[in-house]
């Protein structure tokens, strides 16, 4: 989920919920699984971060913070598991065509009295490609990271953002 608000009015309860869901939960899940993965000599920990784990945007303090934290967590876990057969990577998509993205475009269109397509274009202005990332594209990266072709990819942030973070 997302909450957009200037820092000075950002609700502490929303901050804590975002930290819990997007940072503490991945920590706990990895903590619960890592022992069995190491014992088996194989495992994949794949965190879904965001382009916001690499760059910041105004009024998204909590989201940017947790996604940066998730990228750092990924790197730390990758070092702890190196050589064990367990890898840990992050996928960092830009704007993905999800129900949340559609709602953001609809809200923008309504607030500005513009078409839905123009609302999407405004949001996607940060993507040099001008296109949203498809859910299937994220899924295919995850599948690749689970394959043997990714045995030596660990601690990486796989960026799929239409060129956003290349700027």
Automatic annotation (TrEMBL):
It catalyses: a (3R)-hydroxyacyl-[ACP] + NADP(+) = a 3-oxoacyl-[ACP] + NADPH + H(+). It is an enzyme of class 1 (oxidoreductase). Its EC number is 1.1.1.100. It holds the Pfam family adh_short_C2. InterPro entries: NAD(P)-bd_dom_sf (IPR036291), SDR (IPR050259), SDR_fam (IPR002347). It comes from the Eukaryota. GO terms for molecular function: 3-oxoacyl-[acyl-carrier-protein] reductase (NADPH) activity. Belongs to the short-chain dehydrogenases/reductases (SDR) family. This is 3-oxoacyl-[acyl-carrier-protein] reductase.
